[in-house]
Predict the structure.
Amino acid sequence: MLKHLRLLFLLLFAVAMVACGSADETQSATSTPVPVEPTDEPTAMATEEMMDDMQTVGDIAMADNNFSMLVDAVLATGLDTVVQGEDPVTVFAPTNTAFQALPEGLLDSLTEDQLRDILSYHVVDGRVMAADVVGMDMGTSVLGEDFTVTVDGETVMINNATITTADIEGSNGIIHVIDTVLIPPSMADAVAGMMDDDSMMDDDDDMMDDDDMMMDGTVGDIAMGNVDFSILVDAVLQTGLDTVLQGDEPVTVFAPTNTAFAALPDGLLASLSEEQLRDILTYHVVEGRVMAADVMGMDMGTSVLGEDFTVTVDGDTVMINNATITTADVEGSNGIIHIIDTVLIPPSMADAVADMMDDNDMMDDNDMMDDDMMGDMMMPGVIYATSNPSDLADDSIVALSPDLMQTMMSFGDFSEDVTSVESIYVTSNGTAYLTMDTGEGSGALVGIADFGNMGQDMMMDDDAMMDDDAESDDAMMDDMMMSDMEMMMGSGLTAPKGLFVAEDAGVIIVADFGANSIVVFDMELNQLFTISDLGGERSVWDVYHDAESDTLFATGTDGVLLVFDGFAENGADDMAPTRMITPTDLDGEKISVNLHGVAYYAGHDEVILTDVGDAASADDGQLFVIPNALSADGDTEVSVQVGGEASMLGNPVDVVFDGSHVYVAEKSNDMVLRFDGLVSAEMMGMMGDTAPAAMIEVVKAESVSLPASSMMMDGGMMDDSDG
């Protein structure tokens, strides 16, 4: 049973897993906790008005591929009647990754009764929100056995499992996503007895046998097939190091994830020369096949760059310099991958990196980044969204945590000359550009200098963020008055919607929906030219420019995606689309109605689109993924199509992609939604109703955006979109 996924084993996890289950358990080195903050009104759950239309917690899990192993187990044991029943329940739901971390063969060795007991240990009677969980020391499952609750700063653990996403609300209960499968205390000895120590674990170091981890392809192929390494892969390709990772000589790679790259200081990657980037990458590579058991026996190792790194072992935690190994011994045909949670900086580059950051205090005396300094360097991730209710007094820009658990700040107090706020784009230097309506048939492009940097400074202020005595009921919320900021304005627009700042080309591109045109400005907001030829009678809602290919995508409100190849090179008033893409189903029938948001993912050459459907309907929105975007033309079969009741896509106005997650501004449902895993090889050909992985209330969400400073704009690693 459940053999359809190959198990990935976590470093030293198997023994800790079966030995724990009590108050003595400690956090696994593989945990990547997401803050679980109690709030008066949890923002990750749907509003009460939506409750009747929501699915059960069982339906939500069944619609999400991240829970496919949990769902299979629930169906196999008949527990679907519990998670889809009328009685309220709370489920601590392990992801596929959590199941994959179990010792190989363990699931197959369980009887149906034993599996049912393990699953029942993950369920609690009633609706228990995160705010209630953090107030517990202990809880009781429907199995009748207790579990412990440990709160350490922002980390909340159930036994040895960390809650990574909280308060996903269904019609009959709550889901809290956890990163580890829980074992009932009464079963700990039995589970330990099922494990064949000789075949599953190394006698000396409790590590996996080499043969257990063998994967198809080189270590380079493995990384290229995993969307979580898209930034690393793009950097490797940019520097020509793919010949090393896909070569015949054996290598070991300490591989940082997209999250590790995103945690680097803003602008650092963009400021590196190609040689500096190559040095950083080669510092992550070691010659030969070095298994985790060998790593643990080291005090120091030498990279192929020729510079040393330190190895620290503390219980279950193994660190390379300041990076923790979160998954070990992923084996390819030509070497080993150990996944790490932090990008390593070679000691010889410490001063240079410090100079780039204009901060000599960012490195310690040993030219290493310790935990405290790394924390100072990590700018908190942020998602910007615009709220566009009917009353301008309530229009705002909100800053959201990427897990969609918190509204961190709100920006408001717009001028009386503004009648509505449309879209936002924050550049790498912190300047925010917004499209706004300024009256009947008139609009403007507004620039706000240093907006992003001021917002980041406020989020880094611990007192402002976490002071329990803050006057506001929500200690994460601070208001910034737009009137206090230095602003500049470009006019001549009719009803501007989406915009994109092509920093490489030095232009700002605006979709002027009211004038059926695309208007291009320079960075000082002087109008350069207007594209009025849209290939037919249609208007456009959003735009996206890919710098590497110099391609502009524009969404037509008649369901056609317009493509302008050679945009920056050939831009002029008489420019026209070079290609027009119409999304179709498997039968070649057009499935798009009214395209709005657009984002391009260079890693897979895919365009992500939102379709609001009939503007008068609040339940016919869709998400599409168009493959081979740089060459597609005419009727094009989509590789992913999402829509339906569970998806909550009613009026999805805008979309942005961070390299792993798709964020959607959902206007009719007053939400920003997050979908995980849509843009991956495993999801190609996926059609149907998929529930979002997370959501947060944003009244009349009009646009959603990532700050460009958090991305590699030049290398085509991750780009930003909004509209």
The longest helix spans residues 68-77. The chain is about 20% helix and 30% strand. The longest strand covers residues 161-170.
